[in-house]
Amino acid sequence: MDSKPLPVILRKFVFRDVLSQEHDLYLDQDIDAGQDAAQVRLVKIGSREREQAAIPGYFVMSSAPPNIETAEALQEAELQDAARGVKEIAKHLYEIYTQQDGPDPELMIAVHGYNSSRRSVRDWYKDIFKYINRHDTAIPRQGNQVFIGYRWPSENIELQRLGEACKALPPLPQGLMVMGMFGAIWLLALELTTFRDTAPGFAIAFLLALLLGLSTIIITLVILRMVVYFRDRYRAQNFGVLDLVELLRQIDRELVNCKAADIKRQKPDEQNPCDVAAKFWQRTHRKVKLSFLGHSMGGFVVTSVVRILSDVFDTRSIRNKPPADIGSVFRLERLILTSPDIPILTIVSSRVNFLASSLRRFSESYLFSSEGDLALRVASATANYFTFPSSTEAMGYRLGNVSLKASSRGKKGYGIVNLSALDEHFFPGSSLSDAIMRNPYKVMEHLFLTYTWWKKDGYNTLANMSQDCGHPNQPWASTEAEQSAQITIADFFTYFDCTDYKDVIFSVKDGLTSQIPKGVLTRANRRKALNWWDYLLLMFDGLLGRRDVHGGYFQGSFTQVMIYRIAFLGFTGYLQTLDDDPNMAFDPHVALSKLHMQCRTLGIQSFLSPIRYRVNIQGENIAHNKQELIAAIDQESTDILQSDEMIESLKNQGFEVIFK
To answer: Contacts by 584-587 with C-beta closer than 8 Å and gap 24+?
Structure first.
């Protein structure tokens, strides 16, 4: 099977101490500049290592430039390197697959966020590679993973680009800005020196205000370009997403080729080994598990990639049975989103949802969020004010800002806040949908985005937003049962609200741990909600580098372990590392209780997905329970649409209602 050139630059992560003496020929002197003394280096494909890492790692960079004027065709050597790299990745995965007694092969892809330089992205992926191979003892044991750190063409906010931004303005707004500025200066001088408090002076003052307003509008456009948010989003959607899709497509193709080569060796007379190999991969129950770790805008990249890879015309999708299998060889496994720059509509809407069809294909989904994430609450929400079709403030916020509200007593309960409710209402063998309906602890009623301090219960929960979204200005939506669905797409996620997370900081690069715990993403004052003063202090903390309000999850000692182990081992694998007494059989209930106590101690609120409890704790089948949850969500949506109140409302608006 032939392939087209891959539009990426592909390098391999290698520990410096395992490189052979000829390594200088393979070191990347451009992407890895200034890293001579680093423990992890980037090398070209084909470098010789004395010892291979337990989890091979690759740095894949989209070849799309920040500006289209600087686009250059990749050199033939780069194209060949990328092709060899894809073959090497596929070979690793296929060798794992051929070990019949071992676990299924897994490919884990990390994707960075907005406003990220190549250097910062490279260093983060190096930290992940180093952590999973040399800092963590549990992750490398299985030996069935391959790691890819993917960089899409993001750019940094830099003041020196002001000249470029002004130069790129189209002639009309550029002329209006210059004319407005100089005209305003000239009129101001005329006003101050000649006319002052006269009738012509008032006319000049009016023109002065008009010109200043015109210039301000154009300057605002320049500032919006300088913050690079819209440019990054365009590059992410049109370059980063498509290049990652092509990378996965070619890895898929190479895995089919690996099987075809095996078939040809076993049956030399086989005329169409590639066709036989493709049919084999489509029929086998063993697949290559595909997982994603998306941070910030990387969450948007990941979900967009999955939407493309998921065939909407798959007959199983048409029958409301979206499969986890994509392509010939992959099966979607885990989705970990940290501070995702994704509309809150993703989980609020229980009806037509532009991401629901892709999100519910994953076996496991996790969301790490913080109420104090200013990058999303201020920067992203402000930028999306211009583009996102929302008529309210709350709907303009992003998924990474959702938090778990305090109890009815006004105090936050840390740990897994719905653990006791799950233990009480989820009987083994009972229907998952019935258990969720019995359980009074509904996730949509406890996740909130904003808080109004002068109201008695000032939480603006996702349940409230769902009512506003589903029944805007409808007087008939009066009862709670009519207003809010009981089972939604939000039930697929397990949530970790890290707003009050307090821990020591661990640097993977230096291997050092701080001595004194501190608030990692906020000041961790443990209030029922943050107020404007908290946000102001957090803004200063961020500017002074005291804490990373957007990416602190990868600095805290506990959250690093949790995120990376869930990403590479899954939830059951992570729980096994918490309850790893060799003298005792693994008990998921005991391990979950340990996780609960750790989260409680460190100030993390968690809401465990009902499907996680049913599958990972009670040990039931994932496919059956996932399909049951999907069917329950669809049935609730149908019931709402076919309710007497909805039908009456539609008839009053002149619609003819027909049931089929």
So the answer is: none
Distance CA 124, CA 149 (A): 9
Residues 6+ apart with CB under 8 A from 577: 138, 565, 569
Question: What's the pTM value of the predicted model, to 2 decimals?
Answer: 0.89
Q: Quick check: helix, strand or coil at residue 559?
A: helix
Beta strands in 52-176 (DSSP E): 57-62, 106-111, 145-151
3-state secondary structure 424-489: HHCCCCCCHHHHHHHCCCCHHHCEEEEECCCCCCCEEEHHHHHHHHHCCCCCCCCCHHHHCCCCCH
Q: Facing residues of 109 across strands? A: 148, 292
Give the whole-angstrom CA distance, residue 56 versus residue 72: 30
- Reduced to 3 states (helix: H, G, I; strand: E, B; else coil), residue 315 is helix
Place of tokens 């000239």: 186
Please write the tens of the pLDDT for every residue from 460-472: 888 887 776 554 4
What does the alpha-carbon distance between residue 19 and residue 12 come to, in Å, rounded to a whole number? Answer: 12
Scan for tokens 């600095």, then name that residue: 555
Other C-beta atoms lying within 10 Å of the C-beta of residue 620: 15
- 520 or 439: which leads in pLDDT: 520
Query: Is residue 385 predicted with pLDDT exceeding 50?
Result: yes
Residue that has been written with the tokens 């149908």 in this structure: 638
Percent of the chain with pLDDT over 70: 82
Contact criterion met (CB below 8 Å) for 332 and 362: yes
As a residue count, the chain comes to 660
Of 78-92, 399-413, 595-609, the one with minimum mean pLDDT is 399-413
Per-residue pLDDT at 196: 59
Give the position of tokens 């819209």: 230
Q: What is the pLDDT of residues 217-241, one digit of tens each?
A: 777 777 777 778 888 889 999 999 9
Pick the residue with more confidence: 211 or 577? 577
Cα–Cα distances in Å, from 323 out to 289, 350, 360, 492, 614?
Answer: 13, 19, 9, 15, 20
Examine the pLDDT at 184 and tell me if it is beyond 80: no
Closest CA to 13 of 34, 22, 38, 114: 38
User: Rounded to whole angstroms, how far apart are CA atoms 292 and 333?
Assistant: 8
Lowest mean pLDDT of 389-398, 444-453, 617-626, name the range.
389-398
- H/E run at residue 635: helix 622-641
The 3-state DSSP class for residue 40 equals strand
Rounded to the nearest 10 degrees, the angle between the axes of helix 241-266 and helix 297-309 is 50
Find residue 310's DSSP bridge partners: none
Residue 450: which residues within 8 A CB-CB, separation 6 or more?
A: 393, 394, 397, 460
Query: Of 129, 120, 112, nearest to 31 (Cα)?
Result: 120
Identify the DSSP state of 194.
I
The DSSP 8-state label assigned to residue 343 in this structure reads B
User: What distance in Å separates the CA atoms of residue 610 and residue 398, rounded to the nearest whole number?
Assistant: 23
- Nearest alpha-carbon partner for 248 in 95, 89, 99: 89
Q: How many angstroms separate the CA atoms of 208 and 180, rounded?
A: 9
Q: Per-residue pLDDT averaged across 36-42, rounded? A: 89
- Alpha helices, H only, 227-291: 229-235, 241-266, 273-283
Helix (H) / strand (E) element for 493: namely strand 493-497
Q: Are 405 and 528 in contact (CB under 8 A)?
A: yes
DSSP result, 524-544: ----SS--HHHHHHHHHHHHT
**Secondary structure class of 634 (helix, strand, coil):** helix
Residue whose entry in the numeric block shows the structure tokens 């209930």? 589
CB 79 within 8 A of CB 54: no
Q: Say which DSSP state 77 is in.
A: H
